[in-house]
């Protein structure tokens, strides 16, 4: 019974880690997009 619970716990931890990596990727992607938009806005305001 213990082996079954450990297997489930490890599978859940692996799934959580993969989802966490996806969230971090999306956050950094969003920040990069916002930086590009801000850069374009700043350049248009200067000219």
What's the layout of helices and strands?
Layout: H1 2-46
User: Mean pLDDT, as a whole number?
Assistant: 94
Q: What is the rounded distance between the termini?
A: 70 Å
Using the CA coordinates, give the radius of gyration.
21 Å
Q: Strand content of the residues, in percent?
A: under 5%
How is this structure best described in words?
The termini are far apart. 96% of the residues lie in helices and 0% in strands. The mean pLDDT is 94. It contains one helix and no strands. The longest helix has 45 residues, at 2-46. With 47 residues, it is mostly helical.
Quick structural summary:
The protein is mainly α. It has one helix at 2-46.
Features:
1 helix; mainly alpha; 96% helix; 47 residues; single chain; 0% strand
